[in-house]
Amino acid sequence: MTVPTDPNCFLKALDGQVALIVGATSGIGRAVVDAFLRCGAHVVAFGRSEEKLRELVASSQSFARALATYAGDATDHHDLDRAATLAVDRFGKLDTLVCTVGAFDYYRTILDYDTETLSSAFEELFRINVLSYILAVRASLPYLLRQPSSIVLTLSTASFYPEGGGVLYGASKFATRGLVTHLAYELAPRVRVNGVAPGGTIGTNLRGLASLREQDKRVDDATGDRAQRIQRSVPLQVAATPDDHTAAFVYLASHRLSRVVTGTIINSDGGRGVAGTVRVAHLVEEIS
Q1: Confidence of residue 110 (pLDDT cuts 50, 70, 90)
Q2: What is the rounded CA–CA span in Å between residue 217 and residue 209?
Q3: Number of continuous H segments (helices) and E segments (strands) in the chain
Q4: What's one Pfam family here (predicted)?
């Protein structure tokens, strides 16, 4: 087998692709925009904040001809329809969709809710974390189905384990994990559907819920105790940044690199899946 020696081969992974990235103005979504542009894609960056979209454009001047923006609500199908159409009007097609929108429940258990707040928090969080993904897929499908295409959904370590969030956040992320499986089956062979499940990440802008009066609260603590807690919780002892996850998105989006991959989730979580095994192994060593 011949091993590629070109150091720039990965940077060409998305040449010729046109991507709509929903949730593009901060955190992992913003990092994915930067990575996709570097890897050769044309990008429509979708976000709520016009100011942050202007900042994105200003910081991406070297890719000005490859970047368009759309300010809208990811839970509004009209905005998503217009953004998908913008990609085709501006760049001639749409063959890649990435969803990174999310809201957080700040680790609330079922016992932390009364009936009224539980219902309103559920509706808000599932609308943002699950419905927005479904609407983005539906809006993009008329264009994605025209050629071999890819969809990458952002999940979480909370899609697998009862950590990383509260009961509603975890349930919503299990739901998006189910979306990967169902959509991969329903849209094959034309569209590949995969997911990336990041673990605890510093430097994000994941916000709280308006229904809980926490819409101004952010999981964005790049230093101090949160970073240390993340490091202690995973075998690799790292606190990930948004950039640490982007290669997984590039790989799964690339028609060249992952054309035989669908229904797959890459867990970029510092080894959270084996954390229990590591703890047991250390305990056995201590006992012996």
Answers
A1: very high
A2: 8
A3: 9, 9
A4: adh_short
Domain residue spans in the chain? Answer: 11-287
Catalytic machinery residues:
169
Separation of alpha carbons 190 and 187, rounded Å: 6
Residue 250: which of 16, 90, 33 has the closest Cα? 33
pTM: 0.89
* φ and ψ at residue 159, rounded to 5 degrees: -75, -10
The CA distance from 180 to 162, in Å, is 19
Residue appearing with tokens 């499986």 = 181
Phi and psi for 21 in degrees, rounded to 5? -115, 110
Rounded Cα distance, 262 and 186, in Å: 11
- For 58-205, strand residue ranges (E) read 67-71, 96-99, 149-154, 191-198
**Region at 94 (left for phi over 0; alpha for psi -120 to 50; beta for the rest):** beta
CATH superfamily of 11-287: NAD(P)-binding Rossmann-like Domain (3.40.50.720)
* Host H or E run for residue 20: strand 18-22
Better-scored residue on pLDDT, 273 or 57: 57
pLDDT in tens, 153-202: 999 988 998 878 899 999 999 999 999 999 999 999 999 999 999 887 87
Question: Reduced to 3 states, what is the DSSP secondary structure of residue 86?
Answer: helix
Share of the chain above pLDDT 90, in %: 66
